[in-house]
Write a structure and sequence with these properties.
mainly alpha; Growth Hormone, Chain: A; about 525 residues; single chain
């Protein structure tokens, strides 16, 4: 019996030097995209001062990119059908490079925000398509290795971003955090087009779901702005936050109904009918949200309360990539031999362990004490993405891979944004609560506090200066206790996620690679 015409035929895998170069090009594009999410964070003060705006206004440079990127990611499946995976991926890189150049050339905040929105929008398809193209390049038995290469760039970039951004801002100038994308992007686009232009996916014209797209932009945009501005506006005590919440909730409800009933939805929500897809996507998203929340929180604590410079704070967190680089090949090589749920369990267990270690930090913690959990965390990072992506893609046909990758990455990116906003907000609130409790002990009946103030005044300080010094020490203690609280919470969340992983259907070891690839 002849094969049905609608069944996609997967291209043959690449081999040898061609495979190595192709993997490098796809990994560089992914690294550049993910790096751009975090590289601007430490440059906001310099950028804001140069453009003559406040730091609060400068944070829109980050939010505008995140909102546009999150909205564009789930459109990957739809756009791939219209234009083809290779053409869309290369076009996305080229447009990203142009947008990066325009960002660096900006002379006002308004101009920069416009170009950041464009940059985030065109970057949307890059991550999911790099994933699907990489999977199509490897033979079945090496799918785990392909996923390992992809996951390494996705996890290491958020850690490298602040360190690289700080160094560029201190030693060159802030526009170069955008200009650095130009050579990387052009190289990745050129190599990808040379090697993949003959491996284009089938194209077909499908109607554009304007209603679904409009609802998606509305609820995601309103929710991201709510999270970004919530702490500043005192959350639901602000009419603006209440309105944003109502708009987002209503738009989200209409979005769900529309997408589930429309003949050509802009986002294929039917994927959530698959147990492995929804359980894997939920575990990946929540896990990444907790991970990214801590990635944002740790440098803030080190710089604001432990008096670390941006460069030294980055150096403390940088070792996270060492064990990840060493362990990832082992995971990739053996993922097809064992149930991927065991690897994910290992990853979440190690995450819980290192977060418990961070919950024990005190203001006396030295460089090595703070660095050790970061070093161990590399093991968790190596075993985090590969097994979960394997579960998410298990059983999917080639035509579903781009949509599945786009939707799962959309959920992950949104969760990362939520994690950053929620963790910084909770840290601020818990710090204030601990500060209020500690201050109660600074009074005339407390012999220790009185002795400390007397010691400071004996050194030549005025009473006001001595109280200011004591308050600074209380701030440091309160912020550290708040970090401990969030580390405890994070450890508990990772342990709870282990149960979610085991809701997924088991994948027979012999079939792991083939099913996770999907495209084969």
């Amino acid at each position: 019996m002849a094969t049905p015409m609608q069944t996609p035929v997967a291209p043959p895998p690449l081999h040898g030097t061609t495979l190595v170069v192709a993997s490098m090009a796809l990994a560089l594009a992914t690294f550049m995209n993910v790096l751009d999410v975090s590289i601007a964070n430490v440059s906001i003060p310099a950028l804001s001062g140069d453009l003559g705006v406040s730091s609060n206004q400068g944070t829109w440079v980050i939010t505008s990119f995140a909102v546009a990127n999150a909205i564009a990611v789930p459109l990957t499946g739809f756009l791939t059908q219209r234009f083809g995976a290779v053409r869309l991926f290369v076009s996305s890189i080229v447009l990203f490079v142009i947008a990066s150049w325009l960002c660096g050339m900006s002379t006002s905040l308004g101009m920069l925000i416009v170009f950041r929105v464009i940059q985030g929008a065109v970057a949307g398809p890059m991550i999911p398509l790099s994933q699907s193209l990489l999977l199509s390049s490897y033979p079945k038995e090496k799918t785990g290795l392909a996923l390992t290469i992809w996951s390494m760039t996705t996890l290491v970039a958020p850690v490298v971003g602040p360190l690289l951004g700080g160094w560029i801002t201190d030693n060159i100038s802030w526009p170069w955090i955008f200009y650095i994308n130009i050579p990387i992007g052009l190289f990745a686009a050129g190599i990808t087009w040379m090697l993949y232009r003959h491996r284009e996916t089938p194209r077909r014209k499908v109607p554009i779901d304007y209603v679904g797209l409009g609802l998606l932009i509305t609820w995601v945009g309103a929710l991201q702005i709510l999270l970004d501005k919530g702490n500043e506006l005192d959350w639901f005590n602000s009419n603006q936050i209440v309105i944003l919440a109502i708009v987002s909730a209503i738009a989200f409800c209409f979005f769900l109904v529309w997408e589930l009933t429309d003949a050509h939805p802009v986002v294929d929500l039917s994927l959530f009918r698959r147990r492995n897809f929804w359980s894997g996507t939920l575990a990946l998203s929540v896990g990444y949200g907790v991970f990214f929340g801590n990635v944002v929180l740790m440098p803030l604590w080190l710089q604001q309360d432990m008096d670390y410079t941006a460069t030294i704070a980055g150096a403390v967190l940088a070792p996270v990539g060492l064990l990840a680089i060493l362990v990832s090949p082992l995971v990739g090589k053996n993922i097809g031999k064992h149930d991927p749920r065991w690897y994910a369990t290992l990853a979440f267990s190690v995450f819980a362990l290192i977060l418990w270690m961070r919950s024990q930090f005190t203001v006396e913690a030295d460089f090595v004490t703070i660095m050790i959990p970061s070093l161990i965390q590399g093991i968790a990072m190596a075993a985090f993405f590969v097994p979960l992506v394997t579960l998410i893609f298990s059983g999917l046909t080639p035509d579903k891979i781009p949509a599945a990758s786009g939707l799962s990455n959309f959920a992950r990116i949104m969760a990362g944004g939520f994690g950053a906003s929620i963790y910084t907000s909770m840290w601020s609130n818990r710090s204030a609560e601990h500060h209020a409790v500690l201050v109660e002990h600074i009074n005339g009946t407390n012999a220790v506090s009185e002795a400390a103030i007397k010691t400071l005044t004996d050194l030549g300080m005025s009473n006001q200066q001595a109280l200011g010094m004591v308050n600074r020490l209380i701030d440091q203690q309160a912020a550290t206790l708040a970090v401990n609280d969030l580390a405890w919470l994070s450890a508990i969340l990772f342990l709870a996620l282990i149960g979610l992983i085991w809701l997924a259907r088991p994948i027979k070891a012999a079939k792991v690679s083939a099913e996770s690839a999907g495209a084969h």
